[in-house]
DNA sequence: GCAGCGACGTTCGAATTCGAAGCAGTAGGC
DNA sequence: GCCTACTGCTTCGAATTCGAACGTCGCTGC
């Protein structure tokens, strides 16, 4: 390709982009406070517990967790260490693959999750959903889902060079 | 109030909420890489420069910047220090209020912003807007704007206690 | 089998982040 | 004019975050 067409965003796009970032920043900030007060959890920790609690088996591999919450591997190691020290999860080598580590939520983890969840939901309800009608929420979900799939599918920018580095 | 009505989110709401968080996490991650490569800027730094560049005067007060990008004051002090050391902004005491500090973008700051912006826009276009039609984008903006206003208007959860801390 | 390549998780060091405490400067009541 | 409360920013210490380097394990071709 010669060069990209004048890469600019029209005002509507810019507004949507900025508002998206702003809304999530604000929401995340508020939620973080609530989680800290209610259960001394950081947002990442909550996300991890929530994902584990949602899983049928109550467990996930480290890498899948990191990917799921968009976190660095080393960061996840650190957080998993904290959660384990707090007795909220357990780490064990995978049975089938000796390399990978399986993280499993404990009963204490589920209990804490259950304790924190109502307040969390209340905050999200009050801030994010309060100004939105049920139809709005459906529309929002319908708009964002394809975006998520698209970004997930997109090669992570650095992969391009990696894939064809061997010419 | 006796107690809140069963605070639960229906599956659609949950999906919308999770997708919202996921999309912005992914987007932010991708953008962060691009900014790092293109101009050695963190996302916060870019946001700050962008806000300053957008301002008619090219400047803002520290507090307003921190509020705008949803950042802690101390964090902003740190970042402003970095940007100033890099010659991208200048800090000066406000003329009218001796307490506050006015941050102003320099020509070098504008130049860097201009240099980084096309790539930034390209990433956002390719990831966020690629799966969305112009109508979708309008809808998204229309959905999120009220949410932003609502959250901005909401009392910051901790303000209640601060206001009445003196008994 | 075994050499080489790739995936998984951890360790390490450096940079960033936040809240609490502190230091001015400002506004209002008297 | 002062005293008190409040705002604006910075400093400080502790916690978190990431990428790079590392050790280990699994998979392929031979």
How do the strands and helices of this protein lay out in sequence?
Two copies of one chain form a homodimer.
Chain A lengths: L10 H29 L3 H12 L4 E3 H8 L3 H13 L3 E5 L7 E5 L1 H23 L4 H20 L5 H5 L4
Antiparallel strand pairs in A: 1-3, 2-3
Helix pairs in contact in A: 1-5, 3-4
Chain B binds a DNA duplex (30 and 30 nucleotides) through helix 4.
Report on this model:
The structure is a homodimer of 167-residue chains. Chain A has 167 residues and is mainly α. Chain A has 2 domains: 11-131, Winged helix-like DNA-binding domain superfamily/Winged helix DNA-binding domain (Arc Repressor Mutant, subunit A); 133-167. Helices cover 66% and strands 8% of the residues of chain A. Chain A contains 7 helices and 3 strands. Chain A has helices at 11-39, 43-54, 62-69, 73-85, 107-129, 134-153, 159-163; strands at residues 59-61, 89-93, 101-105. Chain A has a 3-stranded antiparallel beta sheet with strand order 1-3-2. In chain A, a hairpin with a 7-residue loop joins strand 2 (89-93) and strand 3 (101-105). The first copy, chain A, is globular, with a radius of gyration of 19 Å. The two termini of chain A are 19 Å apart. At the A-B interface, helix 1, helix 5 and helix 6 of A face helix 1, helix 5 and helix 6 of B. Chain B binds a DNA duplex (30 and 30 nucleotides) through helix 4.
